[in-house]
Design a protein that fits this description.
2 domains; alpha+beta; Glycosyltransferase; eight-stranded antiparallel sheet; Beta-galactosidase, Chain A, domain 5; Trehalase-like_N; globular; GH15-like; hydrolase activity, hydrolyzing O-glycosyl compounds; 6-hairpin_glycosidase_sf; Glucoamylase; about 600 residues
Amino acid sequence: MKKQCERGLNYGVIGNCRSGALISNKGAIEWLCLPKFDSGSVFGKLMDEDKGGSFDILPENEADITQKYDWNTNILITRFSCKDGIFEVHDFMPRYKLDGGNYYSPPDVIRYFKHIEGAPSFRIRYDPRLEYATYDTRIDIYKSFVKAQTTKGDYDSMYLYSSMNISNVACRQLLTLTKDEFVLLSYNQKLLKQTVERSYTKLTRTKAYWLTWSERTTSFGKYNEAITRSALVLKLLSYQKTGAILAALTTSLPETIGEVRNWDYRFCWIRDASMVIKIMTSLDHYNLAHRYLRFITDLLPDKDERIQIMYGIDGQKKLTETTLDHLSGYCNSAPVRVGNAAYKQKQNDIYGILMDVIYQHFHLFSVSLEHSEELWTITRNMVRAVERNWQKPDKGIWEMRQNNKHFTFSKVLCWVAVDRAIKIASLLQQQDQVDEWVDLRDKIKKDILKKAWCKEKQSFTQAYGYDDLDASVLLMEFYGFLSGRDPQFVSTVKAIQGELEHNGLMFRYKNKDDFGEPSSAFTICSFWLVRALFMIGEEDLAKEKFDKLLTYSNHLGLFSEDLDFETKRLLGNFPQAYSHLALIDTAMLLSGGKLSKEELLLQIIH
């Protein structure tokens, strides 16, 4: 595990809104689940250096290896500058529109070997371990492909095709590159002959798709590169089939090395996904919002059905959590978990977060009568749920597995739910509902102002009756509960910064939870602090902190869930939707506003 732990999360991510892969800065595929995001891994070296399996490219001579994304795409380019020549590997998962309007996004990874100069030689270590390496994987070499398949347990298989000698590829024989070649990994056996020309066509069409998608992304006065890369990450974490948004691509990457705060994040959290949708619509990507709201309406057919905090990407409601005890875990940080028991939790903030997105949808779009009636029914149901639950304790935004409390953030988001419902009712000219709900909104706000305020700390606290501070309270301004210049909010920001900031990064909270005191920085909280500082008038300090935060990404501009306070090493599941949506929101705030097409053209020219 030593090499992996020293390297950290220096991975690039590729994907096609069906699945995704992590590729190390040395060009090795070390995490890939097929055919979907939440399937068993076929390469899982990320979870176990010895047992997990990977796809490595091993230059025969000394090589300088560099990595970048093809500009404004999710195509990853790893360049091998060797003593005997230079070549690049362009890694991607095909995604583009077909003539009928549907997307071509097969469960495939294509590694396009582009010859640059000389005659570089290398070996390929193709070592798949299907189904989380639970049992041995058998490799069979045929005339035109290599088949990997399980030997026990649930049957699974994968196919490899290549323009290079298929036996030499599979058996780690020396390969010499004198022209462009390809390797294709597919969950399905191919019906058509796979050629270099076919792979190159898929590469160019996928590149055109991502460039077109990025071109539609709103441009700003500053931080466009960081905004676009983060938007591309969020797009990758969307599941085309249902509209679900994943929290991250991985499972069980620890918040702190050697500890057990390891969770499976390959699911759709209502909170995370709704916040992603709000940000992406701000960047003019509306299709994600339409598909996500359809995902929600399909999940809630009954008027009294309880909204879960999270669902499977195909809408599964039961996400039983198990552990893979045969895997040692990332840097020996066991257990490796599949599934997530948090789906059973009660978190009252989800009503407000989802209602905020529904309000935005009504505000931005002309909605069909049928769809409006569906969303109006959900709106009224959620207000009823808030009426029943807002005075009850819950698990809170951080998913405490024990000890329900009256968390301030949950109360604020209950207020948000009713506030946005009132705005929706006004848009739909339902004045009777407006009159009925105003009293409830005012009652919740009065309760929060009275019970969440701590005179000694001059701050709103994590929960009623406690003096612990919590970074989530910084979102009071973001959701419109208090203005940025409200004296109580200004005081709260300064108190939270004073107590939770350490070495330029933020704790979520410092009080003990189910596993003791937290020991890593939660990335999104550092972005929240930047936003809050900006809104209370500390604009120069906010910009300084934000610029510093951007330097803590990995070599490709990607963020995980957590950061080590001392080394700034990325920790936790990766890439993390929560972190990237907060980056975009903060960058938009600090950027100086949107650019017109003319301003953007001038910026490019200069």
